[in-house]
Protein 1
Amino acid sequence: MKFYYVYMLKCSDDSIYTGMTNSINRRLEEHRMGLNPDCYTFRKRPLHLIYHQEFMQFNQAEYYEKKIKKWSQGEKLALANKDFELLKDLSVCSNKSHSDNYKK
């Protein structure tokens, strides 16, 4: 059975890279070796794996990766640290125009 992985790497500049692969060990080695100079992580090494999640279906992994890529760095770090209360707090929309925050 083939598995798919969504993963996050913390880069040397403290940015977080989110990716998806069907071979996490191979992909991490590719990132660490810097095989592709056009890759986001090429100039941001060393890299540290801070999170990964395994999926049995490609479409589930793809959906999750796209979802996480839209998150703030704080949300990504909360997920990586398994701080689900903080993740919940950070995910609440605080825009003044949001219906939950609109004061009549």
Protein 2
Amino acid sequence: MSQLTPEVLWAQRSSSVDPEKNFIYLTISVPDVPKESLKLDLKPTTLIFSGYSNTLKREYSLNLEFYAEIDPEASQVHHTARNVELKLRKKELKEEYWPRLLKEAKKVQFLKTDFDKWVDEDEQNEAPEDDFSQFGGAGMGGMPGMGGGDFGGIDFSKLGGAGGLPGGLGDEEEEEDEEDDDDDMPALEGEEDSKAAAKPSA
């Protein structure tokens, strides 16, 4: 069976004084890989991953060699039904970002920037602390892309104007808005009519 390389998203933070804020976010996109078929070998300079997706009937494998060393002991792994998320602690405390994730400078197709988590180097001190506290705990469910069923259900029913129950108040407000518009419109139409009427006689 051929092995597929999963898509990998990454972002980073850096700090020369606080180890907690000196890390790499790594998300391996592998849907429905149960823990028993998942293998993850994290070392200071490499990450080796393999897993079998039951629904897609595909074997995934990944072998990364990092740009610099990480601290496996201080790193965290969070496994969900949709992916495997890692928070890899950079070993060396440095203010500068890593210039890239991998040791080799060549571009690889499967590796992409995680724009949901990315913060520019000069703006990272203003980044919300929630980014750090949510990782690895029960709060993970609230993060973007993590099983947002509730988010989708509520918002889309309102956006879709499904009338009925969710949009009750919204419909009344809309009617009022329409009435307001109607009050304004006749005056404008009247002006246009008078102008139009004035033209032929001129």
Protein 3
Amino acid sequence: MKTYTVYILKCADNSYYTGVTNDIDRRLYEHENAISPSCYTARKRPVILVFCEHFEDINDAIEFEKQVKGWTRKKKEAIISENWDKLKELSVCKNITSHTNFDKL
């Protein structure tokens, strides 16, 4: 059965790149060797694999990749450090205009 991997790379400039692949070894080689010169990571090498999660269903993998791409740096760093419980805390809206802060206005 084929597996799909959602991965996060830490780039030389300390930015993160999130992707999905069905062959993590090939994809890492492509990033490390700038096979696609227009790719985000080509100008930000070297890159380090800091996170990967495997899926059996490509749709689940794509959905998770899209979710992670929309996350803040702190949320990405929480899963990189395997601190999944911190995601809930980081998801709480702290804007003063949030409905949870209505009584503080």
Protein 4
Amino acid sequence: MLPTSNVTEFIFLGLSSKQEVQRVCFVVFLLMYTAIVLGNSLIVLTIKSSKSLGSPMYFFLSHLSFVEICYSSTTSPKLIVDLLVKKKTISLEGCITQLFFIHFFGGIEIFLLTVMAYDRCVAICKPLHYMTIMSQQMCRLLLGVSWMGGFLHSIAQILLMFRLPFCGPNVINHYFCDLLPLLELACTDTYFIGQLIVVNGGSLSLISFGVLLTSYAVILVHLRGHSKEGRQKALSTCASHITVVVLLFGPCIFIYMRPSTTFSVDKMVAVFYTVITPLLNPVIYSLRNAEVKNAMRKLWVRTLKQNEK
């Protein structure tokens, strides 16, 4: 049960109050969301249908792409629809539900990126034992831990929000329900809950980012004894992952590793980890990876031949 509250719905201010800007944003974000779904779906389909992409790295990449679709779908469809209406509302229950899935899929993504860094570390530092260490059983276990970690992270945030009563006002200066904007609307002292949110959300991002940096530091140290060609080949497999990590963790640390106050720039920063990162994921992993491009080419040729029959 939610706490006793006079508020039954919230009103979003959205990205802009100007109708001309909203119309442009509608087209832009509709195209971006379509690209997110199609691009990440293509990666999932390519990996699942290609025998050459059967390594643990691509196993985790396919699940990351699926999570990206789910993560963006928690905010983008609502944002796109709201750009066409004057009053942008969401029920209290709908707001809490959106908040849960944002942190659920966001938490899974953070854990998956950390697991993928560990996978690259093992592949480069212990190549002879790689398939033994990263067995199918281990991959499934790490995937399950990622999903469980995302669930525990999200449920902890939701339990904190369930303690908050909302008596009004009910206007959220954002385009989706997030923790800090909701804290500002609660009619009670939220200092302690705000600190717990920083410990939960901010520390998760910061600690995971630290683990990722440590993994790549270990890789760089290990590569010192390799040839120049060997270093370039090994680093090329990590470059895509590092790019996605920086694009995701930078905005997340900025948002969740600070006191419970909101800034006007928060909405623009949130666009990066809810829209831009899921959009760039298929571009980065496909354009910078020859194996994925070759598998996509073969899938395209196979599809054309099947359609000709």
